[in-house]
Design goal:
alpha/beta; Trna Endonuclease, Chain: A, domain 1; 2 domains; 5-stranded mixed sheet; ABC-three component systems C-terminal domain-containing protein; ABC-3C_CTD12
């Protein structure tokens, strides 16, 4: 799959519904979902032989208890100490369910990242603590099942989760309009030398997954304006715009880091930035909207946004 659904943008109830729909597929239509609130360690249950879990060849059969643990943190992991605390509390609930004869298998779903190293450790911990076969299903497996079962994503309208990158666009709009009104002499442009130390643009494109088609057909057209932008930002009379530029690239870079997994290609990041900054009510900006794209390309080329290989 070329993208991941940002499941941290769901609320708890929506995530529980997602888990129920997945269980409906892998366990069976007999999956029973419980209402929100105090759940006694159960968000849903299933009794019978699973359709295809853990495999079609050898499915589990018995009483399944299903629990959903959602987080709004984009970088949350199952190795976090916070999750260890959640697990320990869950073990108390699982033990109570076992003592009352209501559980044979325990499935926990979470949108946290789960590494291959952490997975067996957690399953062993639960098994040794409460003596119940169990599985922890992390974000990676949920994303895979969503790819295999796209109708689940359609039912929940998960495409709405792909929010465009947001930042304070007005500063960039002001910079573009001001830049469009400045004329540069050939002597200034000829004398301008770029002293930037950086990885090659080809390496940067590979690192950031900027497509060759976009680079050749769109990006390269901006090259001729890069020296003009550098001169504009270096001119002391434009100090206010330089500050706006620095604030803008810092805001955008943070948004990119947080949302990069939502985009397969960096082309799409640049396109989203362009669309979110364009203001149809700003006549001067609309008239010079190509310069907006040029500025975004300059930010990338100048290593102000995107990955830079540690330079």
């Amino acid at each position: 799959m070329n993208f991941k659904y940002p499941l941290y943008n769901l609320n708890d109830e929506e995530f529980e519904k997602l888990v129920a729909l997945i269980c409906n597929k892998i366990l069976g239509t007999g999956t029973i979902v419980f209402s929100a609130g105090k759940d006694g360690g159960r968000d849903a249950k299933f009794t019978g032989t699973a359709n295809r879990y853990p495999s079609e060849a050898s499915p589990w059969s018995g009483r399944f208890i299903i629990q959903a643990k959602h987080t709004i943190k984009p970088v949350a992991s199952c190795s976090d100490s916070e999750f260890e605390t959640i697990l320990r509390k869950e073990c108390i609930s699982i033990r109570n369910l076992k003592n009352s004869g209501k559980i044979d298998y325990y499935l926990m779903f979470t949108n946290r990242k789960l590494s291959g190293l952490q997975d067996p450790k957690i399953e062993d911990f639960v098994s040794e603590t409460v003596g119940v076969p169990n599985s922890l299903i992390g974000d990676e497996t949920i994303q895979l099942w969503l790819e295999i079962n796209p109708q689940i994503a359609k039912i929940l309208n998960l495409s709405r989760l792909f929010l465009p990158i947001t930042f304070y666009e007005k500063d960039l709009q002001d910079i573009v309009v001001a830049f469009s009104e400045v004329k540069f002499s050939n002597a200034e442009l000829m004398a301008k030398k770029n002293a930037l130390k950086r990885i090659s643009i080809e390496e940067k494109n590979m690192l950031n997954k900027l497509s060759k088609d976009y680079f050749d057909e769109v990006f390269k057209k901006s090259y001729s304006d890069f020296n003009r932008i550098s001169l504009f930002l270096e001119d002391p009379v434009n100090y206010e715009y330089k500050l706006k530029y620095e604030n803008t690239v810092n805001d955008i870079q943070e948004e990119i880091i947080l949302n990069r997994d939502n985009y397969a290609l960096f082309d799409q990041v640049l396109n989203d930035l362009y669309k979110s900054t364009l203001d149809n009510n700003n006549g001067k900006l609309l008239l010079n909207r190509n310069l907006l794209r040029v500025f975004l390309h300059y930010m990338y080329y100048n290593c102000d946004i995107g990955k830079n290989g540690g330079t």
